[in-house]
Amino acid sequence: MANPVLPSVPIRMSMGSFGQFYLNGGLANVPRPDENMGFVHLGKRKERDFDEGGEIIIYEGKRAPPIELNLLSSFGADNSSSSSVPCMHHGRSPFSIPGFTYEFVSPAVANKGWENMTQCSRDVLDSTWFDLAGPPHIVMSGSEFYAYFYQPGGLDDKGFEVVNMVMVEHDGRWHKSSDRSRFRHPLPPYFVAKVMEEGYDFLTGPYIKKLFVGERVRYNVKTCRLILVPMKGGSGYHVLYIFDMMKKIVHVMDPKRAHYNIVELERKHTGCIDRLLFALCKCIETFFDGWHVREDEFTRKAHRMMHEPSSSNDSTFYNIHCMWWFDGEYMQKEIWQDQLTPFRQQLMRMVLILLGKRALPPQDVVDPDV
User: Fold this and answer.
1) What is the pTM of this model?
2) Residue 73: partners with Cβ closer than 8 Å, 6 or more residues away
3) What is the DSSP code string of 178-221?
């Protein structure tokens, strides 16, 4: 028996209200009456519904099998007929593992440690708070923690490297020591910098190879479904590209341009994605046997209005949130502007207690009395 259809009367609601109605299962499939409308709104509006200029959008829908609610629109060539055979099974998503969680402390503890850091003397801030043998070997002072997690400006390559280490370490907790499969593989921003600055010569030297194989990568990148590629622009501005190696999709996360329409996003990102796809395929061809990926297999999907547009400084942490909580289909946890500072505080503490580090930061920063 066919599924009943919704009434044929058009549904009139704001974009924010529609997004919540859609996420709550009110509509399973919504054809857009006007392609110029751009993206369907994604933002989870469980606690708030911002006024969006009073614009009323008309939708008509019918019941159908669920679609990927988080994949909002696509641009580029349609390569749905391309054959794509992964080299092996991809690692299991951590979000599908019962009990998986990031070990955050309470917001009150994280906030108190963050505040105590601001009261540290110059001598304490100049001392070493983080020393991890790696590879890569990373040493960070208290002043660097202050700059990364308190002051505006986001993270540099070193800061991104240690945040990636935290995510990799947490993912590894849910695998046996003999299991070298993983779900995702984060790259540092300097991967994009090398590709953009050096063109066809980006593979020269040892730097790029170490990002995919060798001592610093303790799992098999061939098993990773998602390859996470942050790009740092001017004034601390960050964009995130997520390469889904199973579904052959490049996801675009552009926090500062979260309100842009599809034409603007295509103009901004197509050239960069083309170069990164070329570079990623060259790395796979050069560093791995039996893994074959073609550039023309990939489609591109951009994400819009998952949060309010960010500043350049905040874009770093919006993208880290996406790296941690995007499962290839859905964003498992939302984030809004008023949640960004608590996230930075939690992130700082997770770096400070990362397993294997040798330096001892101040006790009242790591485990403050609350």
Assistant:
1) 0.75
2) 38, 39, 40, 262, 301, 302, 304
3) T----SEEE--THHHHHHHHHGGGTTSSSHHHHTTSSTT--S-G
Structure tokens at 48: 């708030």
CB 228 within 8 A of CB 280: no
Do residues 73 and 38 make contact, with C-beta atoms less than 8 angstroms apart?
A: yes
- Could you tell me which residues are beta bridge partners of residue 250? 243, 300
- Beta-bridged to residue 185, according to DSSP, are 227
pLDDT, position 73: 37
Strands 299-303 and 249-253: parallel
Q: What is the largest CA-CA distance in the chain?
A: 74
94-366 CATH choice from 3.90.1150.10, 3.40.395.10, 3.30.1360.120, 3.30.43.10:
3.40.395.10
Q: Across residues 195-202, what is the average pLDDT?
A: 86
- pLDDT for 13 equals 36
The band of 88, judged by pLDDT with boundaries at 50, 70 and 90, is low
Could you give the residue range(s) of every CATH 3.40.395.10 domain in the chain?
94-366
Q: Identify any residues that bridge with 299 across adjacent strands, giving them in sequence order.
A: 249
| pLDDT tens digit sequence for 268-317 | 888 899 999 999 999 999 999 999 999 999 998 887 666 677 777 888 89
Distances (CA, A) of 162 to 195, 237, 311, 357, 363: 22, 19, 23, 11, 20
